[in-house]
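Repro:
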Amino acid sequence: MGSEPPGAWNAGMPSVPRLRRRAGSSAGGDAPDPASPSRSRRRRRVPAPRGDDRRQPSGTERGLAGADGRSGADRRAPARRSARPGRRAPAARPAARPLPADRGAVLLDGVTKRHGTGDAAVVALDDVTVTFPAGTFTAIMGPSGSGKSTLLQTAAGLDRQDAGRVIVDGTVLDDLDEAARARLRRDRVGFVFQSFNLVPALTAEQNVALPFLLAGRRPPRGAVAAALAGVGLEDRAQHRPGELSGGQQQRVAIARALVLRPAVLFADEPTGALDRQAARRTLGMLRELRDRDGQTIVMVTHDPVPAATADRVLFFADGRVAGTLDRPTPAAVADRMTALEAPALAGVGA
């Protein structure tokens, strides 16, 4: 077999440009497709889209749009006026009342609460405005019937006020329905009652885990054990409330209130049902929570000694704030309480 001259293997074959021009034809020599852009340079005019037929911008185009909502060539063109000359722009809606800049963990803004209706109505809170700063320990004191317990329940979202606003951890409670309020109380508010409110059939460990179960969540590994260890009851995890002392039951209640790491812990007479030694230990634990963890605590009490554990004392009388005392001592708190109760005692003596 003789050698072929260079280039003889492709002799007679069409060049690459020819192959490209024949791309529109089939092997059998069918007629070219008249709609093919390679065979015809004529293009049909497509009518401009109108109304709802306009193409919507893609996600990429929207992402590349400028602050004025225009992109590409539209951004170089002058923006169209939204209104014709001489036509009045629609009136803007009135802005909502802004939240105070320093609203703390809990804020009551002009709160009024009444019990009963008509002539028998009793004003428990009378236009109360008070802030509980984040990371502070506040005790609330006042004569019987002064409204301190109503203040606590309203601030915790357990009761609705008749006027004013309640703000917890930046959320206005008045904007929430009952289901949302319940979720906020469960996730961001802890509450400790005088009567402990533990479930007798459950162990200490199960009582502490109860908030997770009510939320339909599984407790994170070690969360319950850590909460019990934080109150010094890691060795009582499998004991039921009937097998614990009053002070231990209250500490289980505090661990349960703190297991979800709430923004604020409300305590209603937490030492009222405890002996002196158990009360001292419970108060010391609350103080440690504030100093070690920065926990916000609001506590109602009638005793000057527990009140002196707090950073400040808020005095209440006749549904209103009657004063505050920073860095309290038992003696100073007792003197202020005596001054508040003096008018009522004078009326009894008369």
